[in-house]
Amino acid sequence: MLLLGLDWRLGQRWRLFGDLPTSFTASYAATPRVNMGFNLIGINTAYRLVNNDQYFQYQQGHYGLFAEAYLSTHWALRATAAYAATRRLEVYAKDDQWPATLDYIGLGQAPTPLSPRLEKGTTLRLTLSYRVSAQ
Asked: What's the whole-model pTM score?
């Protein structure tokens, strides 16, 4: 998978950054302590469930708007409202897999999950981050 990494500062207030196609953010600095903008995130990971001889797959692709406030020099609180175009939190049998996968897009016959399906839809997220200055 080819990733295009970018980090562009477009003037004093606008910044574009991310690793396309898995993440992208367009951020506008409304004040020195408040940012807002557009966010795109794609997640694809799987974990083996040793005790059950199964595996858990987590795939999500969502895009939406965020607002972020710095509570102090290093702590930031971000609220995101997004739409999940892809959302899978599924458990599969040990040997049940997609024939091929390109990042988070399965190609070929989809395996049958053992768990109930989740549908696309609205996601709300609140995160608290500790950020270290690169200077």
From this structure: 0.72
Q: Which helix (DSSP H) or strand (DSSP E) does residue 102 occupy?
A: strand 100-102
Give the tens place of pLDDT for each residue, 56-101: 888 888 999 999 999 999 999 999 999 998 888 888 887 776 666 6
Give the CA radius of gyration of the chain. Answer: 18
Sole residue written with tokens 């950054």 = 17
Tokens of 111: 């395996």
Residue at 71: amino acid letter: L
Cα-based torsion angle of the residue sequence 43, 44, 49, 52 in order, rounded to the nearest 10 degrees: 110
**How far from the centroid of its chain's Cα atoms is residue 71's Cα?**
23
Q: Which SS3 state, helix, strand or coil, does residue 17 take? A: strand
